[in-house]
Amino acid sequence: MVPDSPVFNAPFSYSGQAMTNDASACNTTIMTTDANDTGLSASCSPPALSMPTTILLPYTSIGPAMCHNVGKLPIPHCSPQYQVFTVEPDNLLAVPASLRPTVLQGEIPHIQYVDALPFEGLRDKLLIGLHTGSFDEIEFCTDLLNDGFRIWGNDPTLPMAWEVTEPFARKWRWLLDDCIIDIANFWSGQSRIPAIQG
């Protein structure tokens, strides 16, 4: 069950949406800001803007975003096998902060899609669930890839770019940290979509 989460009084206002039929292009949303305070915690908050600004935000599906994130990791790419993910201390700074491996990623063999998610709590809960067999991984991956998240902007390594969709959040809430719901409610406030509720 999703707990009550307020829609944040974020400084952005939705101005419109442009769509394209070009498969290689992203959809875009134009947003305008006029304040600095987003109401989000520091771990989730977007950079503060100091003056009214128009931002053109592309959004894409999770598949290209995950491929982008895997490309940022110092591991063999497109490996379908189960493996652990660790980073040598000398290489740690080369890995985006949101994708740095947790202790569990270095101990529990898993497929790379786990490493591409920019939420360490979600990664660890997935690994525990996979290790204990408490859920169906194929069902989870199917839901994840079928509009589980919308990715905003051009840097999918940033957790703030990932908006979980309501159907995915309702079904898989036990895997999602509150920060993920807060981010979804931030983005829903931008497009005047109701917040995800319990």
Brief sketch in words of this structure:
The chain has 198 residues and is an alpha+beta fold. The chain has helices at residues 62-71, 120-132, 137-145, 166-171, 178-190; strands spanning 12-18, 27-33, 53-60, 149-152, 162-164.
**Helical content (DSSP H or I, runs of 4+):** 25-40%
Q: Distance N terminus to C terminus?
A: 5 Å
Number of helices: 5
Number of domains: 1
Q: Quaternary arrangement of the chains shown?
A: single chain
User: How many strand units?
Assistant: 5
* Beta strand %: 5-15%
Mean pLDDT: 74
The structure class reads alpha+beta
What is the H-and-E element order?
A: EEEHHHEEHH
- What is the overall silhouette? globular
Instruction: Please outline the major beta sheet.
Output: 5 strands, antiparallel
Radius of gyration: 17 Å
State the strand order across the main sheet: 1-2-3-4-5
Low-confidence stretches: 1-43, 49-54
Descriptive keywords:
single chain, 198 residues, alpha+beta, five-stranded antiparallel beta sheet, 5 strands, 15% strand
Describe this structure in words.
The chain is α+β, with helices and mostly antiparallel strands and 198 residues long. It has one domain (12-190). The protein contains 5 helices and 5 strands. Strands 1-2-3-4-5 form a 5-stranded antiparallel beta sheet. The radius of gyration is 17 Å and the shape is globular. The termini are close together. Residues 1-43 and 49-54 have low confidence and may be disordered.
Question: Helix and strand layout, with pairings?
Answer:
Elements: E1 12-18, E2 27-33, E3 53-60, H1 62-71, H2 120-132, H3 137-145, E4 149-152, E5 162-164, H4 166-171, H5 178-190
Antiparallel strand pairs: 1-2, 2-3, 3-4, 4-5
